[in-house]
Amino acid sequence: MRPWKIVAAGEGGQGIQALAETLALAAYRAGLQSLYIPNFGIEQRGGVSLAFVQISPAPIGSPKFLRADLVAALSPRALRRSGQYLGPETFLLYDNSLIDAPQISDEVVGLQSYDTIAPEAFAERSSYRDRRPAVEAPSRCLVAVAASDLARQRLHPRVFNMIILGAIVEITGAVTLEQVKEALEEKLDRRFKKDPRLREHNFAALELGAAAVKEKATAQA
Amino acid sequence: MAKAAELESRAFITGNEVVARAALAAGADCMFGYPITPQNEIMHHWRRLAPQQGRLFMQTEDELSAGFATIGAVIGGKACFSATAGPGTVLFQEPLSMAEMMRLPVVVVVQQRGGPSTATVIYSQQELNLVCFGGNGEGLRLVYSTGSHQELYDYTIKAFHMAWRYRFPTFVLGDGYQAKMREPLQLYDPAERGFGPIPKEPIFGSVRGEGEKPLLHLRNSFSVEEELSEVLGRHLEDYARAAPELVEHEFLGGAGGELLVVAHGIVGRAARQAVRELRAAGRRVNFFRPITLRPFPEEALRQALEMSGGAVLVAESAQGQLGKLVRLAAAEWGRPRYRTLYRPGVGITAEDIAAEIEEAILA
Q: Side by side, which strands form the sheet with A4-11?
C-alpha cells in the first residue's frame, strides 16, 4: 500500500478526534505503522478541531506534516484552517450539506478532550506555512459527501463522523471497513454493550459513507 | 510486580500513558506530582494503575513540593519520580539543585511545552537548557532525549536504573507531541531485557542501625569555600568518569558526507526521515542525534563531523539550545560551517528539513 497523510478538520464537538483515533487504531490493528496526534490547545470546546493521522507500511517520521494526501474538512472555517495542507495531489473530502454543525455528545463517542486549537484568527495569523486559497485542488481530487444530511435523515446526527470515516476508508483503501468496525468495538465496547443500537448506527454510518463515495466514483466513470 | 506475560504486549497508546506504564514496569514505588499540561495524563494513568500494585501517588500543592517530596522518598530508599513541563520545570530547579548537591537519584519526566513563561501548552524543545543546566550549579545531571514511544518506554525504565547506579538526578526529556500522540510500541518486562530490580537502597542509613548502613550526613550547605570545593570536586570527578559510560547517540550515514544534520528528540525523527529519503536518492547526507544531552556525546559528534566534511545543519524547536551544545563539542574538532533551522516553540517536519538540506547542499 501507499502511505497516507490525513488531516481531519471540523468544529469542536463534531467528533473529529474520535474519527481520527479510530482510523489510526484500525491501521495499527491491521499491522501497519500508524500515528495519530490531535492539535490541542487550552480550550476544551469551540473553535476548529484538527487531527493528524499517518498510516504507512514504513516507519513514520514527524507527527505533523506540510502536505496531506487527504484533507477531510467538515465546516467552512475548518476548510479555511486546513487549506494550508492542500497540495495539487491532495484529496479534499468535504460535507456539502452542512448548515448547522452537528453535535456529538460524550455519551456516544467521547474522546473529545483535545478538540480545539487557539482562537481562529490567531492560529491562522501565526502559521508558518504558506497558505493558498482553500479549494484549489483539481476537481478529480474533490469528494463531496452530504454527511450531515445523511446522518440526520437516515440515521442519527451523532454518527456524522462515522459517515466521514466510511468515506475516508473508501477513498484511501488504507484499511477495510471491517478493521474500522473492530477498532470501534474495541474503543466503544462498554457503550455498545449498554446500547446495541449504537453499534448498528455507527456501523451503518460507516457503510453509508463508503457507499456515497463509491456511487460518486461510479457516476464519474 | 505484574507477570511477564501481562507486560509482553504491543500497545497503541499516548506517550503519557507510555511513561506511566514504563515507571510501573520498572518497579517505581511512588510518584509525587502537580498537574501541568501536557504531562497531566502521566499522573492520571499512574494514579489509575499504581494503587492496584501497592504503589503510591500523591498530588502535592505545587512543583516545589512535588520535587522535595520526591527527594524525601528517594532518601528513604524508594524509587520515586515526578513529571512536569514548562513553568513547572522552572519550579523544579530548586529541589533538583538539592538533588544534584546530595547526589540523589531523583527521576523527572519533562514533556516540553512552549516558553518562556506560560506560553503554549502544546510543544517545544525549549527546556533543554533548563533540564541540563537549570540549577545553581554545574549541571551534574543525566538527560535522555527521546524521539518515539518505544524510546519513552525504554528510557523511562533505564532512567531509574542509571539514576540509582550513578546517583545523579536523571531526566527523560519528551515534549507535548510525544505526550499526546498515539503510535505503536512494544511493552515488556524489564527483567527479560537484562534489567534486574532497580538498585535502590535507603540513602540515609537506618536510625535503628540493625545491621544496616550507619546514619549519613547528607549536606547541601557548607561553612567554608574549601569544604564545598572538596565535595563538589569529587562529584565533578565522578561525573567525568561516568560520562563515557553514559553517553548515547544515533548516527546514520558514512564517510564522505556532504552535510551532517543534527537534531534531538522528536525533531531527530523528522531529520532521520529526511536524511533517509535523500540518501535513497543518492545524496551523501549524514544524520546525528544525541540521545543523552547531558553528558553530551561530544566525541561521537566530532567523528560524525569528520565523516561529513565539517558542514552542519542543526534543527530544533528552540533558538539554538541544542546548537550551543553542538558548537561547544565541535570547537575541539575545528571550525565547521553552520546552518541552522531554529523554530522556537514550533514543530519541524521532515519536509522542512529536506528543503533546508537541499538549500544547504546547493549553497
A: A142-144, A91-94, A70-73, A4-11, A48-56, A33-39, B182-187, B9-14
Instruction: Give the distance from residue A97's alpha carbon to the nearest chain B alpha carbon, in angstroms.
Output: 31
Quick one: closest CA in B to A68, which residue? B351
B121/A128 CB distance under 8 A: no
**Chain A residues within an 8 Å CB radius of B266:** 62-63
What phi and psi, each to the nearest 5 degrees, are found at residue B69?
Answer: -65, -40
The CATH H-level superfamily of A4-220 is Pyruvate-ferredoxin oxidoreductase, PFOR, domain III (3.40.920.10)
Q: What is the pLDDT of residues A10-37, one digit of tens each?
A: 988 889 999 999 999 999 999 999 999 9
Residue A63 with chain B: CB contacts under 8 Å: 177, 181, 266, 347
Structural domain spans, chain A: 4-220
Does B275 touch chain A if contact means CB atoms closer than 8 Å?
no
Of chain A residues 99-158, which have a CB less than 8 A from chain B?
114, 128
What residue type is assigned to position B9 of the chain?
Answer: S
CATH number at residue B68: 3.40.50.970
pLDDT (tens digit per residue) in B165-211: 999 999 999 999 999 999 999 999 999 999 999 999 988 865 565 66
Burial class (CB in 10 A: 0-12, 13-18, 19+), A111: middle
Q: How many Å apart are CA B1 and CA B352, to the nearest integer?
A: 44
- The CATH number covering residue B307 comes to 3.40.50.920
How many other C-beta atoms lie within 10 A of the C-beta of residue A97?
15
Q: Do B182 and A36 touch (CB under 8 A)?
A: yes
**Any A CB within 8 A of B180 CB:** yes
From residue A183, alpha-carbon distances to A15, A52, A63, B216, B275 in Å are 16, 18, 21, 55, 34
* B139, part of any domain: yes
Q: Judge whether B272 is closer than 8 Å to chain A, CB to CB.
A: yes
Q: Is the pLDDT of residue A112 over 80?
A: no
Q: Could you tell me if residue B83 is inside a domain?
A: yes
Residues B179, B259 within the same domain: no
Domain extent at residue B331: 251-362
pLDDT tens digits for B215-274? 778 889 999 999 999 999 999 999 999 999 999 999 999 999 999 999 999 999 999 999
Q: Give residue B92's identity as a one-letter amino acid code.
A: F
Cβ-based contacts of A25 with chain B (< 8 Å)? 12, 182
**Phi, psi (deg, nearest 5) at residue A89:** -100, 0
